[in-house]
């Protein structure tokens, strides 16, 4: 099964990174235009961003796993209008010296089987993680 994997080190504590992943204010600072969420296992999550056509695109899912400051997994609804429907996104956080290592795994769903869509998603995640780092490091 195709998957997207990225890893980045950020000069911030796991708690600071966690806040950026699990709060609306945090996510709206680096990833999405609007976020609504209940960051607990079984809690709902909605991310809204501008789509390729300039119109708002909504991703809906459920927090599958939530282990504060360590790991987070979101299962995107199979009926979500976003291309990522039916996929899972996992974030793993680990303290590494004075930094936090963030590992991302995006897997499942049919859109990752399409080489062009997977390449686009891979590029988007790479840019998003750099944006996360910039937001936390003040660059």
General description of the model:
The chain has helices spanning 14-22, 24-28, 115-137, and strands at residues 3-10, 34-37, 44-50, 56-67, 71-76, 87-96, 99-108. It is of the alpha+beta class. It has a single domain, classed as 2-Layer Sandwich (Alpha-D-Glucose-1,6-Bisphosphate, Chain A, domain 4), CATH 3.30.530. The longest helix has 23 residues, at 115-137. The mean pLDDT is 94.
Strand order of the largest sheet: 1-7-6-5-4-3-2
The CATH architecture name reads 2-Layer Sandwich
Rg, Cα atoms, Å: 14 Å
Percent range of helical residues:
25-40%
Q: What overall geometry do the principal axes of the alpha carbons give?
A: globular
Following the backbone from N to C, one meets helices and strands in this order, namely EHHEEEEEEH
CATH hierarchy class name = Alpha Beta
How much of the sequence is in beta strands?
35-45%
Keywords:
Alpha-D-Glucose-1,6-Bisphosphate, Chain A, domain 4; seven-stranded antiparallel sheet; 3 helices; 7 strands; 27% helix; globular
List the helices and strands and how they pair.
Elements: E1 3-10, H1 14-22, H2 24-28, E2 34-37, E3 44-50, E4 56-67, E5 71-76, E6 87-96, E7 99-108, H3 115-137
Antiparallel strand pairs: 1-7, 2-3, 3-4, 4-5, 5-6, 6-7
């Amino acid at each position: 099964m195709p998957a997207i994997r990225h890893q980045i080190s950020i000069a911030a504590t796991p708690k600071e990174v966690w806040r950026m992943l699990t709060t609306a204010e945090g996510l709206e600072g680096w990833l999405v235009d609007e976020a609504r969420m209940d960051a607990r296992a079984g809690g709902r999550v909605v991310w809204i961003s501008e789509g390729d056509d300039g119109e708002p695109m909504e991703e809906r899912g459920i927090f599958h796993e939530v282990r504060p400051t360590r790991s987070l997994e979101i299962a995107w609804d199979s009926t979500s209008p976003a291309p990522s429907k039916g996929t899972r996104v996992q974030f793993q956080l680990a303290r590494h010296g004075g930094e936090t290592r963030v590992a991302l795994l995006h897997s499942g769903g049919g859109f990752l089987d399409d080489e062009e869509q997977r390449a686009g998603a891979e590029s988007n995640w790479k840019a998003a993680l750099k944006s996360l780092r910039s937001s936390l490091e003040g660059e």
